[in-house]
Amino acid sequence: MTEETYSQESKYASIGLEKRSEENDNSLKDHTILSEDQICIEVARVSFDEFDYQKGCDICLELLRRDYNNNDAHSLILDTFHALGFKNELIINLKAQLRQIMLESK
Description:
By secondary structure, the chain is mainly α. The protein contains five helices and no strands.
């Protein structure tokens, strides 16, 4: 390989790297940045999917303490009510905690 050929290949390689770098920068713009609450909701969903209802409920309760109008947290709690039944001990405690949060939010 001559120096001229090497120089041309090197030039094309650096152009390729610059192009890939620009593509990566553009692809980062497409990603949505999740808020802390959205991340917590996702962690709660994973907890429920793994049958760790206590952890999922604790996360949802904390979100509701911050913002009682958090529809995602309410929805996950309702799903838990239906999954475990209203006579489940966790659900009975959860309802009492929800009442307290609701009273504090007024």
